[in-house]
Design brief:
The chain is about 75% helix and about 0% strand. The protein has about 300 residues and is mostly helical.
Length: about 300
């Protein structure tokens, strides 16, 4: 198509997406910029540029291009969804909620928006709202594996282990690739002191998705329950390497560093956690004194 019409903007946007999937980020960025140049009133070029910048680890530059996508197409639900995902990634959760809701105003039956909004509300500890939103997603698609699994996650946080099992099992039944099934059951096993079962389940989660940061966090918790602080710290650091914007991982590293007598490291990581999640941690001293994350 580019050979026949080199000024066709959607062709440049489509090629940018293909190049991103192939890992050719520099070329993907070039094609996105060509799409913007050819037709600056279409959001797709701006969105592709933003995602290319994120893949190139130039996250700070990406936000303005998400915002420009919405400026040229205010009713583009994908633009609001992408900007909300970006805000959630950099832990500006109230802004993420705002743009997820704007996306839903435009496209009220897109279940992915409900799932992401529910996850953000959960990040904020607003569990009742999170469940209401997730149930709404299920009303559009009762076989939405992510939504079913998230109800399980909410139930787990409420200590409703049987209900959590039910929803994790339902999610796995409709989507056998749903690796969080293993994580959810592993956490239940940890709360029930079935540590060997928990280890086996977390190993299966890593086999299914070796780059999911959360799994290593819970492996660290399991190591602590076994009394192995050195292994726990290595696992928390591995989790942080995969996702450096997870405040609960930063808090774990801070807490464990303090327990090991490394006050400099404890202060460094507690400051990072508070900066990312002031809605969870009021200050560094409160975090280090009162942070609780292991099953009682």
């Amino acid at each position: 198509m580019l050979d026949r019409n080199p000024t066709f903007p959607r062709a440049h946007s489509n090629l940018s997406q293909v190049l991103r999937r192939k890992g050719e980020m520099d070329n993907a960025l070039i094609e996105a910029e060509k799409a913007i140049e050819v037709e600056p009133t279409l959001a797709r070029g701006y969105l592709n540029k933003a995602w290319s910048l994120i893949e190139l680890k130039r996250v700070d530059e990406a936000q303005v291009w998400f915002e420009k996508a919405i400026a040229v197409e205010p009713d583009n639900e994908i633009g609001h969804l992408n900007l909300a995902d970006h805000y959630r990634r950099i832990r500006q959760l109230d802004l993420a909620v705002k743009h997820y809701r704007l996306a839903l105003d435009i496209k009220p039956n897109l279940s992915r928006i409900y799932a992401n909004l529910a996850g953000t509300l959960g990040d904020l500890g607003r569990w009742n709202e999170a469940e209401t939103v997730t149930q709404k997603a299920l009303s559009f698609n009762p076989k939405d594996g992510i939504a079913l699994g998230y109800i399980g996650y909410i139930a787990l946080h409420r200590g409703q282990y049987e209900r959590a099992r039910k929803y994790y099992d339902a999610a796995f039944a409709v989507d056998p690739t749903y690796f969080r099934y293993y994580i959810g059951h592993a956490r239940i096993a940890m709360y029930e002191k079935r540590l060997d079962d928990a280890q086996n389940l977390l190993n299966q989660a890593i086999k299914a998705n070796p780059r999911w940061w959360d799994t290593y966090k819970f492996q660290g918790d399991l190591a602590l329950l076994r009394g192995d602080r050195d292994s726990a710290m290595k696992l928390y650091e591995q989790s942080n390497k995969l996702n450096s914007n997870a405040p609960d991982v930063l808090a774990r590293i801070a807490w464990l560093a303090q327990a090991q007598g490394n006050q400099v490291m404890a202060q460094e990581y507690s400051q990072k956690a508070v900066k990312l999640a002031p809605y969870i941690f009021s200050d560094e001293s409160e975090l280090l004194k009162n942070f609780r994350f292991l099953p009682e």
